[in-house]
Design a protein that fits this description.
There is one protein chain. By secondary structure, the protein is mostly helical. The protein contains 11 helices and no strands.
Length: 290
């Protein structure tokens, strides 16, 4: 019998650690202000945001692994072999092919309405919060040179990608999979938690779809490299698009829908599924049968 405590208990401990360290991370701005930092400066805010990500998403799973004596390399699937980087590149192609269907889901989600009365007021408040968040994001991601663009890519794209994947896929999904003994259930539950954790109701569904993609890339790819590369690219495309839009090099803003015709959306979606099945599902089945 496994001497370790039940995995359900470990999931609870992980979530409690996350809440605790998130509170600690939220205090970083106050501490920085006490030491004289200009927290109104966008660059300073991004640095504090990056540090908060490290505290909230890296410390809980690492501490949990230490407490319960997990092999971190095995738990987080830290396989950096050449083949995994190749799978990561395939994952990037799948992400690009899936963008039209994700855009369709995003537009559908943004079209949710709560009706009138109290629910209507709640909807208006939530949408106003989303608009303020978008305006803040655009301000934080303003870059007038390539150096600032690289800085934004590291702090806004790379750090969150690695930190969030370590927490959600490396720890939470792995523990849920062992607890439920159903990896597909673990992928779905983790994707929902991933979507809810971002706190934007009118962008919930596309984030759940992204979470499903990242979860299955992690499960079938067998390495943190694969899903982290895709998560980074998803973030990086937004950062780069903001930069190009602000410089007047493109006319498309990250907040605008792609509006790809449904025929192309269907074709790209089928291609993404086919590529995923051929490079991940089939290879996973072959490796299990060896």
């Amino acid at each position: 019998m496994d001497a370790k405590p039940k995995y359900g208990q470990q999931v609870l401990v992980l979530l409690l650690l996350f809440v605790g360290f998130t509170i600690v991370g939220s205090c970083l701005m106050l501490v920085a202000q006490l030491f004289g930092a200009d927290i109104a400066d966008p660059k300073t805010m991004l640095v504090l945001q990056g540090l908060s990500q490290l505290v909230s998403f890296v410390l809980p799973p690492v501490l949990l692994a230490v407490i319960y004596r997990h092999d971190m390399r095995q738990l987080f699937q830290l396989d950096f072999s050449t083949g995994k980087w190749g799978l990561g590149l395939v994952g990037l192609v799948i992400l690009v092919l899936a963008m039209p269907i994700c855009d369709w889901v995003a537009q559908w989600n943004d079209g949710w309405h709560f009706g009138s009365g109290v629910w209507g007021k709640i909807e208006s408040s939530l949408r106003e919060m989303n608009n303020e968040l978008s305006a803040t994001t655009e301000k934080l991601l303003y870059a007038d040179n390539v150096g600032r663009l690289v800085f934004n890519l590291v702090v806004v794209a790379l750090i969150p990608a690695v930190c969030e994947e370590l927490f959600f896929r490396g720890a939470l999904q792995q523990l849920l999979s062992k607890w439920f003994r159903q990896p597909h259930v673990a992928v779905v539950v983790t994707a929902v938690v991933f979507g809810l954790a971002h706190g934007e109701l009118f962008a919930l569904m596309p984030r759940i779809v992204l979470g499903l993609l990242l979860g299955y890339l992690f499960f079938y790819g067998g390495s943190m490299v694969v899903n982290s590369m895709v998560h980074f690219m998803n973030n990086a495309m937004v950062v780069v698009l903001y930069y190009l839009s602000q410089q007047g090099l493109v006319g498309l803003s990250p907040d605008e829908p792609l509006n790809v015709m449904w025929q192309w959306t269907a074709l790209f979606t089928v291609a993404a599924i086919g590529l995923f099945y051929a490079n991940f599902v089939m290879d996973h089945s072959k490796s299990k049968n060896l």
